[in-house]
Structure formats: structure tokens, C-alpha cells
Specification:
The protein is of the alpha+beta class. Helix content is 14%, strand content 22%.
Length: 69
């Protein structure tokens, strides 16, 4: 028998057995953590961004740096 997953909503601080992942916190020096919300509060959070997508868009931008030798 498995227990249902219980998480606390980051917005209203109520526990829920149907948590929605709303944010992933990444850490450079160790493991990150996930932020959950209840189904009523989840729409109030913006969609999660993919950190690799941010890096890809930064690579495509042209730099204004000019190297003079």
C-alpha cells in the first residue's frame, strides 16, 4: 500500500494530496528543490522556464563587443 503524496502549497500554505509543480529551484553548489501549489493556486504562477532555453537564446544574440588587435 502506498501513501498519497502530500505537499504544502507555496501560496496558501494548505496541504494538498494533488500537488502541482510550479517552480524548480536550481542550485550551483548542491541539490535544488521543487515548489508546489494546490490546484486552486497553481494558475496564479507563471509557466516554468527552461534554463537551457535561456542559454540557447543568449547564444543567438549578437554581442556588441569588438576585439581590436
Amino acid at each position: 500500500m502506498t501513501r498519497p503524496t502530500m505537499r504544502m502549497c507555496a501560496r496558501c500554505q494548505r496541504t494538498t494530496d494533488e500537488p502541482v509543480l510550479v517552480h524548480e529551484v536550481h542550485a550551483a553548489t548542491g541539490p535544488g528543490f521543487n515548489v508546489y501549489a494546490c490546484s486552486e493556486c497553481a494558475p496564479h504562477y507563471p509557466p516554468m522556464t527552461d534554463p537551457l532555453g535561456i542559454l540557447d537564446s543568449a547564444d543567438r544574440r549578437r554581442t556588441r563587443l569588438t576585439l581590436r588587435v
